[in-house]
Amino acid sequence: ELGRALAFRGDTIVYGGGAVGSMGALANAALEAGGRVIGIIPRFMREREWAHPGISELRLVDDMQQRKREMLRIAEAIVTLPGGSGTFEE
């Protein structure tokens, strides 16, 4: 519901770029509703094929610290959904 709502509002979603879990579901819902989704993911995660293959834009970074900096740099608001240890750390 959140992904669709953000897409309908015209908001761009900026997230960690993964294809699974609650954030993958959010990205899928936004895309299905015609929204724009930007993923920011470390190269090692893409190499492990964790990156979402269908998002609007995928930005590769060197590490988790750079990922967080880039997400904060371009985001206007932050919504945290339940997730794993990576979500908790971020």
Question: How many H/I helical runs?
Answer: 5
Main structural class? alpha/beta
How large a portion of the residues is in β-strands, by DSSP E? 15-25%
Number of strands: 3
Portion of residues within helices? 40-55%
Largest sheet: 3 strands, parallel
Distance between the termini: 23 Å
In short:
The chain is α/β, with parallel strands linked by helices and 90 residues long.
Describe this structure in words.
The chain has helices at residues 2-9, 21-32, 43-47, 64-74, 85-89; strands at residues 12-15, 36-42, 57-61. Helix 3 (43-47) links the parallel strand 2 (36-42) and strand 3. With 90 residues, it is an alpha/beta fold. Strands 1-2-3 form a three-stranded parallel beta sheet, sandwiched between helices. The protein is 46% helix and 18% strand. The two termini are 23 Å apart. It is built from five helices and three strands. Helix 1 packs across helix 2 (21-32).
Summary keywords:
90 residues; alpha/beta; globular; three-stranded parallel beta sheet; 46% helix
Topology of helices and strands:
Layout: H1 2-9, E1 12-15, H2 21-32, E2 36-42, H3 43-47, E3 57-61, H4 64-74, H5 85-89
Parallel strand pairs: 1-2, 2-3
